[in-house]
Automatic annotation (TrEMBL):
Signal peptide: none annotated. InterPro entries: AAA+_ATPase, ABC_transporter-like_ATP-bd, ABC_transporter-like_CS, ABC_transpr_MalK-like, ABC_transpr_MalK/UgpC-like, Mo/tungstate-bd_C_term_dom, NA-bd_OB-fold, OB_MalK-like. Keywords: ATP-binding, Cell membrane, Membrane, Nucleotide-binding, Translocase, Transport. It comes from the Bacteria. This is Sugar ABC transporter ATP-binding protein. PROSITE patterns: ABC_TRANSPORTER_1, ABC_TRANSPORTER_2. One of its GO terms (cellular component) is ATP-binding cassette (ABC) transporter complex, substrate-binding subunit-containing. Pfam families: ABC_tran, OB_MalK. Residues 4-235 form the ABC transporter domain. GO terms for molecular function: ABC-type transporter activity; ATP binding; ATP hydrolysis activity. GO terms for biological process: carbohydrate transport.
């Protein structure tokens, strides 16, 4: 058992820079947790705190029930994979993979068995005698992963391991990663700012912003029920449409169109309406709830199209499979905003996005 627990972690640097303010979370054995957030939100700092490469200003890191704050990185039995691969250039692939085991004086025969097993798992058998400079980016990344796996650590930490790969290779290695970690019975913490990686690889996603945990949930819940306006805008591509609307009684007002609000304990005077581009229908057959809009941009994404529509003075992006082409620019369309797919967030112009909580 090597459950990872973070208790009220805080990291403060000089000049009052606080990349991690107060973060608590748990990662169970066999769970794949992704730390997702924009650049500078504290993801790598949090990972370095877990690895022991940084000391927390406050809080505790617990691995397998034991507080490890005072244990040196090398003695934590944590394996870290870096964006830069960090391979030893003068060593062969095989030597790179087995270096940590030699250092720990693991018997030679056991090293050989573990090396062969991990090389097979990652398809590296043919490359064991090459130097890192003789490998492609994808192959180097596989060696970096092999080096982590062969150690059989208590916790795996991966810091943007795919970000040096081109788009196609990234997709390929991403699915390989999923396969590799599927059978691992250890906690995995994976850092990325790429939401596709977060959504496809993880059991749990922790969205970070401003040094704080904004939401910790399954990928589906993060998508379907974002906890605040920051998460709503950060997860999803293209971004969720977010409109600030005035309210009157139990309705929100979009031009002369009224959208019925759920029954909130107190009805707000202003609100933020969120609707994902893929949840809006254009020219639906049933038109009781439609509103007219004018198409001003059509962008083709292969089979799907992104349609920008101006509706009662507001701009909406729609993602659709309808056979719409550039000729539609300037046309009037009927737009349906299905009530059950609308997300409502508290609006207060003084509050930052991550403090505008979900209302429904
Ligand atoms: N040693 C340090 N001293 C001072 N400030 C630091 C130090 N390390 C990181 N920071 C600051 O802490 C903040 C968070 O950095 P961190 O690397 O954790 O972000 P990140 O979310 O991983 O970003 P990215 O996705 O760009 O790697 C940044 O503003 C960074 O400048």
């Amino acid at each position: 058992m090597a459950k990872l627990e973070l208790h009220n972690l805080r990291k403060q640097y000089a000049d009052n820079i606080v990349p991690v303010k107060d973060i608590s979370l748990e990662v169970e054995d066999g769970e794949f947790l992704t730390l997702l957030g924009p650049s500078g939100c504290g993801k790598s700092t949090l990972l370095r705190l877990i690895a022991g490469l940084e000391q927390p200003t406050q809080g505790r890191v617990v691995i397998g029930g034991k507080t490890v704050n005072k244990i040196a990185p090398g003695d934590r039995n944590v394996a870290m994979v870096f964006q830069s691969y960090a391979l030893y250039p003068h060593m062969s692939v095989g030597e790179n993979i087995s270096a940590a085991l030699k250092l720990r004086r693991v018997p030679r025969t056991e090293i050989q068995v573990r090396l062969e097993s991990v090389a097979k798992k990652l398809g590296l058998q043919e490359l064991l005698y090459r130097k890192p400079s003789q490998l492609s980016g994808g192959q180097r990344q596989r060696v970096a992963l092999a080096r982590a796996l062969v150690r059989e650590p208590d916790v795996f930490l991966l810091d943007e391991p795919l970000s040096n790969l081109d788009a196609l290779l990234r997709e390929q290695v991403r699915s390989e990663l999923k396969q590799i970690f599927k059978d691992q019975q250890k906690p995995v913490v994976y850092v990325t700012h790429d939401q596709t990686e977060a959504m496809t690889l993880s059991n749990q996603v922790a969205v970070l912003y401003d040094g704080l945990l904004q939401q910790l949930d399954t990928p589906y819940q993060i998508y379907a029920h974002p906890a605040n306006q920051f998460v709503a805008g950060f997860v999803g591509s293209p971004q969720m449409n977010l409109l600030e609307l005035s309210c009157e009684g139990n309705t929100a007002i979009l031009g002369d169109f009224r959208i019925v609000l759920p029954a909130f304990p107190t009805m707000p005077s202003q609100i933020v309406m969120g609707i994902r581009p893929e949840d809006i229908s254009l020219n639906p057959v049933e038109d009781s709830q439609t509103i007219e809009g004018r198409v001003y941009l059509v962008e083709a994404l292969g089979k799907e199209k992104l349609i920008s529509v101006r509706v009662r003075g507001s701009d909406l992006t729609v993602r659709t499979l309808l056979p719409i082409d550039q000729n539609w620019e300037g046309e009037t369309v009927k737009v349906m905003l299905p009530n059950q797919l609308i997300h409502w967030f508290a609006f207060n112009s003084n509050l930052p996005l991550h403090q505008r909580d979900r209302l429904n």
